[in-house]
């Protein structure tokens, strides 16, 4: 087993860390004191300037002040510049409605983020095993089981392959003291429960359990990176300009799940195990599900996965001029004589165009969204058709919720894209023609139904 300082030097060399400043996160506990000592041992070898930072959380009264005083004295003894900063963890927890444990971590990292250059934290193989067990108990996938990464941006974890027992042995051998956080001795937090009860059981089975977990994490990180690259390529291949995913069912199941997770996450929807499996099932059976019970629906039709937002049925009395049922979608209604209509049928490449006999309308014409059970016999056809079946066969899933319908007291008169009903078609007896043109915006991201 290499000396811990040699382990840290080897880590820094692998990461290409030399001739720069590294700031050690110093709590005063055994792990962080060991980290600072090893960094100081590495400094002349790699041309490093070592500094330290201590965050005083104010959670343990006199004990917190004791820790800060210890760190100050230690850094004076070792001639290390130290920055001490206090954080109002309880106030942060109240303001952000989170646990004090979470608040403490976020306050620490807010301080660390503001420090220029590299930050070294004292995460160990023991912390890594506890993290893996915690995530497994809470629910996670391969990425979560990769544990704590050796490096994340500016953050370095040089002791990640070292166990807590090795660290305490190193300090004892060197005659270096440290402080103990009394809250670590209780079972008040989930991690403490794992540390005091689950980890010892694993160590009884295999004394090298922490090191074996670190080796597993190394393997999983490589395989996770490989699958992530494959999933990125699959996602790019399936992604359509309108934001839907097409052809995802042809990808391997493992890549499907990763693409679905990314799809849901990008939409701000829950992307846990059960949500991902529920969406994956849509790829084979079709249908839709309310992903977050707030109106956002994930649907799959004809191997296309897309989002739409549900809302109550909308309708409005048709007005001559502009009519808007859906934001960004306009129905232009114009009333002209039959003679004028026959002389110059008006087309524009930006619009869909329809015409019907205005004189047959009973009561008033109502423009509305889709309703259950609609049927109509289009002009020129011998039989009526179910609108739902026509939509599924002829209209893009992304456009179905925006289709406009026109009805009077007797039923459907016109369906956008399908045309006028047979009884509303323009004939030689028609005197006034209702001309409808529909404009759809082209950058619709989410669908309203």
Task: Write down the CATH class of the largest domain.
Answer: Alpha Beta
Q: The biggest beta sheet, please?
A: 6 strands, mixed
**What would CATH call the architecture of the largest domain?**
3-Layer(aba) Sandwich
Number of domains: 3
- Quote the CATH topology of the largest domain: Rossmann fold
Query: Helical amount among residues, as a percent range?
Result: 40-55%
Determine the N-to-C terminus distance: 65 Å
Low-confidence blocks of residues: 347-351, 442-449
CATH homologous superfamily grouping of the largest domain? HUPs
Molecular shape: elongated
DSSP strand tally: 22
**pLDDT averaged over residues:** 88
Radius of gyration: 33 Å
The chain-level structural class is alpha+beta
- Spatial strand arrangement across the major sheet: 3-2-1-4-6-5
Chart the SSEs and their pairings.
Elements: H1 4-14, E1 21-25, H2 30-46, E2 49-56, H3 62-78, E3 82-86, H4 89-96, H5 100-113, E4 118-120, H6 125-138, H7 142-145, E5 151-152, E6 155-156, H8 164-174, H9 190-205, H10 209-238, E7 245-246, H11 253-266, H12 273-285, E8 287-290, E9 296-301, E10 304-309, E11 315-317, E12 321-326, E13 329-337, H13 338-343, E14 352-357, E15 366-368, E16 375-376, E17 385-386, H14 387-394, E18 405-408, E19 411-415, E20 419-420, E21 432-440, E22 447-448
Parallel strand pairs: 1-2, 1-4, 2-3, 4-6, 10-22
Antiparallel strand pairs: 5-6, 7-10, 8-9, 9-10, 11-15, 12-13, 13-21, 14-21, 15-18, 16-17, 18-19, 19-20
